């Protein structure tokens, strides 16, 4: 690898030229890393809903041409000036939100919302010089959430890279760099269900099933899955979900159905849908006195959360979380170790696999609702 240090690397990348149009595999030039940056050889990446959402560009400022991708694992090729924590050969997980380790958030034990490197979906350039490190024939191709992992090489801020155990299989732990950690952390770090408690999970996609995995690990005795799509229930059994409720099967609000099933309400609920109605139900279905609801789903722009304030006086608690409250650099290596100790299963999330040249298939699987996670091997 050392022969490429300081030089431009030419490699393959899947470029999104226009919103909603199939990605095109192109030869791109990847510039060397500047101060506090790292150039990473991406080994495997996965497709997450957030990539699809920004590729469709229906609600946000479109930034094109762009290289998407943010759930991945790779190997450090070279480091820029000032990078001391990483060296060539280290195995890393890129993360869409960073940890500078110096701001008020990074210094607070309670927060993971770094001032410098918090997710920014509008920025398509590096912080150091406001420019892109990707180009085709001199024309810049923009970055996505500081990761752009649909390229065989990417340049990433050191604060957005978690150094992990080199023995960890990258084609499994890559999914910890976004969705799975988000759901898992929502339960383990924020909802914190006591052993033997009852937990309701709203939305049984990859994030909700990871939240269910968290409830199983915490020792919950009942895990109730709530989803509008009955197809999700079969898969969810593999994730320790013990009971299922489809709001469409009932005439009364789902919070009332859950209250009847649980003698007054669940101990904890985790909402992973993005639907504001599910968010309200997830809050109102927790038990008076001790119930805690955690919101994870990203709502629509104009949504408003409406509930009677009496619910708070009755000692129901409402919380929300970003990336499962994990600090990317400090905490992700430990989540990888949970997998290595076999406390956490990742294989069951990976339902599909393609190589880089077939990346558009991964989009099809997700758009049709067939995949939980499709991984993309970057060498072919
Ligand atoms: P997904 O689309 O795979 O799963 C969502 C599930 O919710 C689907 O099965 C759908 O049928 C179900 N659903 C929708 N409306 C419902 C309702 N009213 N009641 C019950 N079920 C309903 O999505 P995912 O990838 O698992 O992500 C889930 C959410 O988490 C998304 O909103 C995503 O944007 C968000 N997310 C948040 C963070 C964070 O840090 N807070 C990080 C990643 C993803
Ligand atoms: Zn910070």
UniProtKB/TrEMBL annotation:
A Pfam short name: ADH_zinc_N
EC number(s) per entry: 1.1.1.1
Gene Ontology CC terms: cytosol
Localization terms from the record: Cytoplasm
Molecular function GO terms recorded: alcohol dehydrogenase (NAD+) activity; S-(hydroxymethyl)glutathione dehydrogenase [NAD(P)+] activity; zinc ion binding
CDD domains for the chain: alcohol_DH_plants
Cofactor(s) of this protein: Zn(2+)
Superkingdom of the organism of origin: Eukaryota
GO terms under biological process: formaldehyde catabolic process
Alcohol dehydrogenase-like C-terminal domain boundaries: 206-338
Domain Alcohol dehydrogenase-like N-terminal: 36-161
Keywords (A to Z) from UniProt: Cytoplasm, Metal-binding, NAD, Oxidoreductase, Zinc
Stored InterPro entries: ADH-like_C (IPR013149), ADH-like_N (IPR013154), ADH_Zn_CS (IPR002328), GroES-like_sf (IPR011032), NAD(P)-bd_dom_sf (IPR036291)
Reactions it catalyzes: a secondary alcohol + NAD(+) = a ketone + NADH + H(+); a primary alcohol + NAD(+) = an aldehyde + NADH + H(+)
Record text on subunit structure and interactions: Homodimer.
Similarity field: Belongs to the zinc-containing alcohol dehydrogenase family.
Name of the protein: Alcohol dehydrogenase 1
Organism: Eucalyptus grandis
